[in-house]
Amino acid sequence: MLEQLLALAIFVAVFAIAAVRNVNIGIVMFPVACVVGLLIADLALEDVVAGFPLSILVLLVGVTYFFGIAHSNGTIDWLIEASLAKVGDRVALLPTAFFVLTALISAMGAPLGGLVMAPMGMSVAHKRGIDPMLMALAMGCGLSAGAFAPTSLFGIITWGTADSAGIELSPLLLFGVAIAINIVLLVVAHVLFGRGRRRSAGTPELAKAMVARGESLDTYGQSSLNLDNAGGDPDERGPVGRPTGLQSLTLAAMVALVVVVVVMALRDSQPDIGVIGFALGAILAVIDPKAGKAAMSRIDWGSVLLVGGIITYVGVLTAMGVVDLLGEKAADIGAPVLAALMLCAAAGLISAFASTTGMLAAIVPLALPLISEGGIPGWAMICAIGVCASIVDVSPFSTVGATYVATTVDEAERPRMTTLLTRWGLSMVVVGPVALTLTLILPGMAFS
């Protein structure tokens, strides 16, 4: 018992120290997992290292490399320009358009890739008299929704963890839940901030500084679009040309990837999205070696290391019986729904100030005993934890929220944005768990 508690305390301490010091948690967690495994758990080093999730590594690298090529050859920029051209000067549709665009980009492997829309979205909001809070929430909800696609990081981690534990969870169901919740939040944002003050459509210089955790927007793949004219009057924007041959081929490959994933999921198969991504990326790289080489820098190695280190340590905790111990304690509460509610709230609260990716990798495995001991449907519990950890990301204390504050064009609006995003993000710590418990967990228990 003492050894189990010591190992768990070390896990929490390492997580907290790395988060406070803004160091990749997985890099710190992996060697500590080896030390704890050898000295406390009495495991062989090979057994500890075997806990590194190679399947998730293949998924993340394959998917982010493929979509990295789509960024490098200009396909993503073409999609954005074509989509905004369709919206034209219909101001009321702009927040929804940025919701959809951000969701699409976020679904392409790395959720933070959706931040490429932040400078453009906030510039459009300033020029067209849209409340910047509405635009920030629209993009934040889009990022959260797209992140749970079967091709994106949050979806890969959440679904992959459930699958490895033998929990039946369709990746499309997880994606659908995330989309539904975030659409509801988008509607609420329209109600609260859709009557924003109309401002003069000036053309101030776009804010370039990124203050989120000392990171740059370039980390997520900055767009080469002309942001100064984005969302302006139709006459100010040049016509969107036809995609090049290579871009057309890339679009076809993207459609093929989505179709294969959807068809195989509907047939109760488990598509290896990483392998498919590698295959499609290899074809495009052979055709355009320059784009293939540029895409190498877009592989999300940071997330691979983050998830790998945390899951390796969780594997040590599992071998020591810590996860089973937590499950027994949760069952002792006597009210599994209350335990589930508390777990969702903890996921949201910690994620508001720390890495959502790390939180998912750490807390989803810890929910497995509650599922087996408390009678809560696994699919409902996993979906609830994932969404609760994601919808708080617009908090200005996280990378996403800080980016929206930093890219707000009118500097006088930034204090207001910080205040409102703080209120919204922290309110989601309560609203998210309650709403998902009522709409997913309780109905799931009733019909299971």
Task: Describe the model.
This protein has 448 residues and is mostly helical. It has 21 helices and no strands. The chain has one domain. The chain is globular.
Please give a handful of descriptors for the protein shown.
mainly alpha, 448 residues, SLC13 family permease
Shape: globular
Oligomer: single chain
Sheet with most strands? none
Through-space gap between termini:
34 Å
Question: What is the secondary structure topology, with strand pairs?
Answer:
Blueprint lengths: L1 H19 L4 H15 L5 H5 L4 H19 L2 H13 L6 H13 L11 H10 L4 H16 L5 H12 L6 H23 L51 H22 L6 H15 L1 H7 L5 H19 L2 H11 L3 H16 L4 H11 L1 H7 L3 H13 L8 H8 L7 H34 L1
